[in-house]
Design a protein that fits this description.
The structure is a homodimer of 252-residue chains. Chain A has 252 residues and is of the alpha+beta class. The first copy, chain A, has 9 helices and 5 strands, in the order H-H-E-H-E-H-H-E-H-E-E-H-H-H. Chain A has 2 domains: 166 residues, NADH Oxidase, CATH 3.40.109; 46 residues, no CATH class. In chain A, 38% of the residues lie in helices and 13% in strands. A 4-stranded antiparallel beta sheet of chain A has the order 1-2-4-3. In chain A, helix 2 packs across helix 5. Chains A and B meet through helix 1, helix 2, strand 1, helix 4 and helix 5 of A and helix 1, helix 2, strand 1, helix 4 and helix 5 of B. Strand 1 of chain A pairs parallel with strand 5 of chain B.
Chain lengths: 252, 252
């Protein structure tokens, strides 16, 4: 195992959900934006934008939609947006048709640009001694969130990020052993759930030590549980949201 | 602007497309996998896998599909895979139905896990003095690539990565100024293509200095050009590929 400051920070990553009541400085903000700016981008199209939300009323509304008390509370809130609007505007204002901007492959490139930028910023955050939590919940109520963020067509909010000075020191969460996720030469289709027994024990111990109410949980219990169970929820609106935004129209 | 080793490496990122003829060591490989392992993951579902391709014949086949001479040439080739197969198997083998694994929101979570892991690995690569290039071209011929990689249902190859010891020193590519991509409080819908004139000049100068054949190019020229022009190409197969893999079935 090779060690350096970047890698040591990466392998010690944990989500921070409690921050000190102190916003980022202008210099920190500028640094994070500059890092985002230098993220690899598919075909040099630079298909992402970042929205920094500081208005209290707006933060409260987003917190309500995400239903997580730390969203838009202490620290800074960012929304990472897959953005084909800018490039559509360039084409439009220069007299061209929309071309392929409504196609799924182009949208996937925008998703990639956006998520790569997210992780790049995340690593910069941790390198400065700050912490963050990714907010997938910004898609729990897609259509309401779109309205709240007042985004133009051809944009799609992918992930939120709450960033700040850590006010907690959570334990490192045990991940799947590499043999289940990293394959040499061929994907191993011959997966056997019994092989997860040891890992399940490790995860159970982790929760046992972490939770004051001692919830008994394991990895396979989570995967077979509510998280993935059938349900009718607002997240089902994602395809509708994408079409409404003029994205992925080739599915029509 | 804040500086540290991680950030300095990030803001100096450039894609490397020429590598020395020396594969990664076991220690480097293990380090990169361990970094991937510790990437944030949506709902703790760990929905990604990495496939490391070393077989020459397979690398040649992938290179042909990507139509880029550096794919699977010097250095190491990885395919980053959005993977819901493992969790479906857990549910199946423990007597549960597939639940929500065929839904778009769950697939997007898997995309996120995969792309976050990609950038995390990318940053570790550069922190070790190595270089990489992201390979979006692994989706240029989606159905053929699926066959070549012999992946099970509920998986989707998102991005490839060619990694190695740099054998070139490309120039830093100028990115869109932050005012176009990073917004305070509200997304600025009032985009005007004239405002890109200065940036276009910078990009033109970059290509002018880089290319021996002195191609004249600018950002707006690229966006209004072939990259985004309407065309019938194999990338149009993406929705079909996803359905074939049992993903995003709620679009049906």
């Amino acid at each position: 195992m090779i060690h350096n400051k970047t890698i040591d920070s990466q392998i010690n990553h944990r989500s921070i959900r409690a921050f000190k009541d102190q916003p980022l400085t202008k210099e920190q903000l500028e640094t994070l934006y500059t890092v985002a700016q230098h993220t690899p981008t598919s075909m040099f199209m630079q298909n992402f934008s970042i929205l920094h939300i500081t208005n209290e009323a707006k933060r409260a509304k987003i917190r309500e939609l995400c239903n997580q008390q730390y969203v838009g509370a202490e620290g800074d809130l960012f929304i990472f947006i897959a953005d084909l609007y800018r490039n559509q505007q360039i084409r439009k204002q220069l007299g061209k048709d929309d071309g392929r901007v409504h196609m799924t492959d182009i949208f996937f490139q925008a998703m990639e640009d956006t998520i790569l930028a997210f992780q790049n910023v995340a690593n910069a955050v941790e390198s400065m001694g700050l912490g963050y939590v990714p907010l997938g919940t910004i898609n729990d109520h897609p259509l309401k969130m779109l309205e709240e963020l007042d985004l133009p067509e051809l944009t799609f909010p992918v992930l939120g990020m709450q960033v700040g000075i850590p006010n907690q020191e959570p334990q490192l969460k045990p991940r799947l052993p590499l043999k289940f996720t990293c394959f040499e030469e061929e994907y191993n289709k011959d997966f056997k759930v019994e092989d997860l027994a040891d890992y399940d024990k490790i995860v159970t111990t982790y929760y046992d030590l972490r939770d004051s109410n001692r919830r008994i949980d394991s990895f396979t219990k989570q995967i077979t549980g509510q998280k993935l169970d059938k349900a009718i929820i607002d997240r089902d609106q994602l395809p509708e949201e994408l079409h409404q935004q003029g994205l992925c129209l080739d599915w029509k």
